[in-house]
Amino acid sequence: FSFTNELSIAHQSGEAYFHKIYSKEEKNEFYTRILTETDFTRLSDERKKPILESEGFTILAPLNKNTALQLNRYYKKSFSDIDIEVARRFGNVFEQ
């Protein structure tokens, strides 16, 4: 699951935002590692279960020079153009 690398490349390339949908398998590859090797091990099993059982992972991250806002969905549905525009505007507030 390479979203962290892909997000970093998009930011370094000067993209305005990063938006991608990942499969359940890709998501679980990432989260299995995160939930066993980082501070996320402290999450309760009750909280881990819906993350691992969800059908996929959708990310939207407006990218600015010094900040990035990350919005996640634990299902495979693209963010709309309106969602993207609102998120970009909101992200710009933190850049000021």
**Count of alpha and pi helical runs:** 4
Along the chain, the helix and strand elements come as: HEHHEEH
Sequence stretches where pLDDT stays below 50 over 5 or more residues: none
**Mean pLDDT across residues:** 93
Number of strands: 3
Q: Care to describe what's here?
A:
The protein is α+β, with helices and mostly antiparallel strands and 96 residues long. It has one domain. Helices cover 50% and strands 18% of the residues. The protein has 4 helices and 3 strands. It has helices spanning 3-12, 24-37, 45-53, 81-95; strands at residues 17-23, 56-62, 71-73. α2 (24-37) runs antiparallel to α3. The longest helix has 15 residues, at 81-95. The N and C termini lie far apart (32 Å).
Task: List its salient traits.
96 residues, alpha+beta, three-stranded antiparallel beta sheet, 4 helices
